[in-house]
Design goal:
single chain, 1015 residues, mainly beta, 22-stranded antiparallel β-barrel, 5-stranded mixed β-sheet, globular
Length: 1015
């Protein structure tokens, strides 16, 4: 028995020893993705194993080791107890200087770059659910101010890199996707993106010459697999969006009371007395109380339910790699009948044909259907009428008939407006886009150091705009018995580029990287429109224009431009410490005058990696330090075609009773017209401290844009009012700062913070020969000379109006009348400065973001905040929602209006505008502080553990819930939906309308549930 017991104990010990002598585990990154090739060593440095393609490892003989050391290039080395080593997560090393970034016509180590280049990876871009690439990029890059100006699906965004530098040209950056210029970036599938690089200074952007002055955003999309085998990924999400906040308007009782008080003041303004007639029993009870109290913002909006699905299949063989990507996205807008559907298919294939030739192709088909809400201002658009429609009217009467504000003759004095819910439900505003985008290339390896690449890229787009406004819509299309139009627009863009790349390492630590090539680009835009009106009924809508009794004359247009370029860049590196980059591009554009077809755009950049000097070894707190400086010139060609030519316009006239075609000269020629040039100086540094726990990147820049394009006045004897000329200049100077701090990093918990801060000061330096003020708009009926002024010494986008100093009191008016019997103002009217003055500017001083990522085990929490200070907002909607009553509903601010007993207020005395008119001019009362703090994204995610993944036979799985636009803290003076908005801007136009709003499509508060899984 004793022998049996001894044998049994020995077997138990052997089994325990056997279990301890072998350990299995898996290594993943912070997103749960397997990491192959991770080195696993003993604490004494002895190499034990490495992970396979699935991130798994097996080690024998570990009984004598208490812990293991896991290391992988680009990731933080971790020492983990053996008992906790079944699942090990490695986090990205904070040595961003060793990462590879995309630059113009090539790639480079971040440490070798002498220009201001910021990189955003897909994991950060898609850290929260996004519907477009700009939404994911917002707040990620210092120096880049992205304003999502509309909550509409496919809504317009404004992107400004290091300040506004143009008056008549576009301020949008140049977007390059896989080497091909792309226009409609808002429709690109963000889930196709691998990484984004932003070229901010001239040293980085000069390689794009005449199109680079507004900065360049380089987008690299996903391709085939990067390791042998096949990887399948599926990403899905469903979102619920709600109106984040309501504008405070009068309810039915308050509105009727305001009308009564305004009517009671009629005699003061020389108008006949008037009383309210509340006899319409469809709207009022017998005692005169209103039956309805409609919330028109609620009636015109909805709970929006959206979803997104992305399927990616990536394979890699011995000599080729293929990627196939499918995306379906349905983004439902919170306003009725507004949505955007996107169908996207993309195919990539890269092949090594032989040792001297590589081939690649990237083809994308993008199809979108967008039901939009009318984006223009003024008139009776739903974005306006859902605020100004009086709440006494219901959406529909009990019999199901729609209601507008002219349904009762006793309220005929109202500004005739249609029911916003009816407009949204019955109008057709359908935009259908079909896009073929992509490129193909051959890369010839001439020698081991010299490559020749030739590539062809295309962007073909067909856009169809369908519009129909029924015959039943009051003050919109009822008088025309229905209005229909169909517009077809075709874009055809191609570019062909050939360039050599030479990379050589020499003895003595010298490295040389040279790129030289040529580029050809051409774009043709064709547009044709047909329209008709006066339909017998609404049956055909826009599908049969011939059914309209009054077809309109067809309209068509044709536009073409081309650019021919030659470029070169030389990069020199000595001992990985001393860096020099020289760039030159020569561009010739058809858009400019015969005397200035070609222009030169040079740049130079230098860098010094100080941390590699021997004297820095005595400063262990600094792990990496690079100083860099650059200077260069870039250009802006983004003006209309044919601006330098004398163009001919056509029209018709009656001669002898017959209509005949005529032609007339429309533009005065300017053969000296050339592009705007921006010279930029940049001084910056990149630093990592305290064992790479803190990363800092900061830049100071000074940009001076000359040859600004302005319309120079001409003598009337010429027959023209002006000619487009290069007669202005503007400067932008500022600071970009990005700080990342790894505050806590333990085995189970980590906390990382990132702060970006951007300061910009914009100054107009010159305006023509005499530096005369210019009023660039935007223009609006009540503000005939526009909201902004261009004045030397001031910021572009400076607001121009009167200063409101309150309201005229009874005593003040009496004193004025004693001195001047013809004094024009009455007590209770707005009191303003005598002359106009600058009331601030619509661009911020500081913008940025502050994001924090917390990880505990498999859980992760992202809290992302956005902020801006220094900008002003023009609330132009106060013209009709506060400065007058009687035509429509008003904001609740009118409840603080002037009365003889309450004279210390800026709100004018109530007056019934249909009888007594109104006093309303653009003044400082319309201007609000535009500072804000936004809870942009909060994302909570969970990645499945290794054991669960193994059981499910999948590589990774992540679930998340998120809240976007959770809150916005604004100044008390701001009354609108969102402080980032614009009502007078068009795609690609100068952003003088930024932060000037006459109502807007509100941004939703969105909650999302999502899944990322890989097989």
């Amino acid at each position: 028995m004793r022998k049996v017991l001894i044998i049994f104990l020995l077997l138990v010990c052997f089994k325990v020893s056997a279990r301890q002598s072998e350990i299995r585990g898996r290594v993943v990154d912070s997103t749960g993705q397997a990491l192959p090739g991770v080195s696993i060593a003993a604490p004494n440095g002895r190499q034990l194993a490495s992970t396979d393609d699935k991130g798994q490892y097996v080690i024998s003989g570990t009984a004598t080791y208490r812990s293991l050391v896991f290391s992988f290039v680009g990731y933080t080395t971790r020492e983990v107890l053996v008992k906790d080593a079944s699942l090990v997560t490695l986090y990205t090393a904070w040595q961003a200087n060793e990462s590879v970034v995309v630059i113009g016509y090539g790639k480079a180590r971040k440490s070798d770059v002498t220009g201001a280049v910021s990189s955003v990876k897909a994991a950060d871009l898609l850290a929260q659910p996004v519907t477009n690439a700009l939404e994911g990029l917002q707040g990620r890059v210092a120096g880049v101010d992205i304003s999502l100006n509309s909550g509409a699906p496919g809504g317009l965004a404004s992107v400004v890199i290091r300040g506004i530098g143009s008056i008549n040209s576009s301020t949008n950056p140049l977007y390059i996707v896989d080497g091909v210029a792309l226009e409609n970036i808002q429709f690109l599938n963000p889930y196709d993106i691998q990484n984004v690089e932003v070229l901010k200074d001239a040293s980085a952007a000069a390689i794009y010459g005449a199109r680079g002055s507004n900065g360049v955003i380089l987008i690299t999309t996903k391709r085939g697999g990067d390791k042998r085998g096949t990887t399948v990924s599926y990403d899905a999400s469903v979102s619920i969006g709600k109106l984040a906040r309501e504008i405070s308007v009068l309810n039915s009782t308050q509105w009727l009371d305001v009308l009564r008080k305004g009517m009671a003041n009629n005699p003061k303004w020389g108008a006949a007395p008037r009383t309210l007639d509340l006899s319409d029993r469809r709207l009022f009870n017998a005692d005169g109380s209103p039956i309805y109290n409609t919330n028109w913002q609620e009636a015109s909006t909805r709970t929006a339910i959206s979803n997104n699905h992305q399927l990616s299949i990536q394979t890699k063989g011995e000599n080729s790699a293929t990627g196939v990507f499918f995306n379906y996205s349905y983004n439902q807008g919170i306003m009725l009948n507004s949505d955007l559907r996107r169908f996207n298919v993309r195919l990539t294939h890269d092949a090594t044909i032989n040792k001297w030739l590589d081939f690649g192709i990237n083809a994308m088909i993008n199809y979108t259907k967008e039901n939009e809400v009318q984006p223009t201002t003024g008139s009776n658009t739903p974005t306006r009428t859902m605020i100004e429609m009086p709440s006494i009217f219901p959406v529909k009467f009990p019999d199901g008939s729609w209601v507008n504000n002219q349904v009762s003759p006793t309220f005929a004095f109202l500004d005739a407006a249609e029911n916003p819910a009816k407009v949204l439900e019955s109008q057709t505003r359908l935009n259908t886009r079909t896009q073929l985008f992509g490129n193909t290339f051959f890369n010839f390896h001439i020698t081991k150091d010299l490559d020749f690449k030739t590539q062809l890229g295309v962007d073909f787009q067909d856009v169809l705009y369908d519009y129909y406004s029924p015959s039943t819509l009051l003050n919109l299309s009822a008088d025309e018995k229905g209005v229909a139009s169909i517009t077809s627009e075709q874009y055809r863009y191609w570019q062909q580029e050939n360039y050599l790349t030479y990379h050589k390492k020499f003895r003595g630590g010298h490295q040389l990287n040279v790129v030289a090539g040529a580029s050809w680009q051409e774009r043709i835009d064709r547009n044709v429109q047909g329209s008709s009106q006066y339909f017998a009924d609404d049956y055909y809508r826009q599908y049969n224009l011939g059914a309209g009794a009054q077809p309109q004359s067809p309209v068509s247009s044709y536009d073409k431009w081309a650019i021919n370029s030659y470029f070169a860049r030389v990069g020199y590196n000595w001992n990985d410490k001393y860096l020099l980059t020289l760039t030159e591009r020569i561009d010739g554009s058809s858009r400019f005058g015969a005397a200035n077809k070609y222009g030169s755009f040079p740049s130079v950049g230098a860098g010094w990696i100080v941390s590699k000097e021997s004297f820095m070894q005595a400063v262990p707190a600094i792990n990496f330090l690079k100083l860099r400086a650059s200077y260069g010139v870039t250009g802006n060609t983004e003006i209309g075609s044919y601006q330098s030519l004398s163009t001919i316009g056509s029209s018709t006239t009656l001669i002898n009773g017959a209509r005949v075609g005529t032609a007339n000269v429309q533009r005065f020629p300017n053969p000296d017209l050339k592009w705007e040039k921006t010279a930029q100086t940049d001084i910056g540094f990149e630093m990592q401290l305290l064992h790479n726990r803190i990363s800092i990147e900061a830049d100071y820049y000074y940009k001076k844009t000359t040859d600004l394009l302005l319309n120079k006045p001409l003598p009337q004897s010429t027959g023209f009012s002006g000619v487009l000329s290069n007669i202005g200049s503007v400067s932008n100077k500022g600071v970009d700062i990005a700080i990342t701090s790894h505050n806590i990093e333990t085995q189970r918990f980590s906390w990382t913070s990132t702060l970006t801060a951007n300061y910009n000061k914009n100054t107009v330096l010159k305006l023509g020969a005499n530096n005369e003020d210019i009023f660039p708009g935007p223009y609006w009926g009540p503000v005939t000379d526009g909201f902004t002024i261009l004045r030397v010494g001031q910021s572009m986008g400076s607001l121009w109006g009167y200063e409101r100093m309150g309201t005229w009191s009874t005593d003040d008016v009496a004193k004025q009348l004693a001195q001047n019997p013809s004094f024009p103002y009455k007590p209770g009217e707005e009191r303003e400065s005598t002359n106009k003055r600058i009331l601030g500017k619509n661009t911020p001083d500081w913008t940025g973001s502050f994001s924090n990522t917390f990880r505990y085990g498999n859980w992760s929490l992202l809290v992302d905040l956005q902020y801006a200070t220094g900008a002003k907002i023009v609330q132009a909607f106060l013209f009709s929602s506060e400065d007058r009553t009687g035509y429509s509903n008003s904001l609740t601010t009118v409840l603080d209006a002037w009365t003889p007993q309450h004279q210390n207020t800026a709100i004018q005395e109530l007056r019934f505008a249909p009888d007594a008119g109104q006093s309303a001019r653009f003044d400082s009362h319309w201007v609000a502080d535009g500072s804000f703090l936004r809870g942009r994204n909060i994302v909570l995610s969970y990645a499945l553990s290794n054991n669960v993944l193994s059981a499910l036979k999948i590589k990774r799985a992540r679930f998340y819930v998120s809240a976007q636009n959770l809150f916005v803290l604004t100044s008390s003076s701001y009354k609108g939906y969102d402080p980032q908005s614009v009502s007078w801007n068009s795609a690609g136009g100068p952003p003088f309308g930024q932060n000037i709003e006459f109502y807007q499509y509100p941004k939703p508060r969105t909650f999302t549930l999502g899944l990322n899984v890989g097989f």
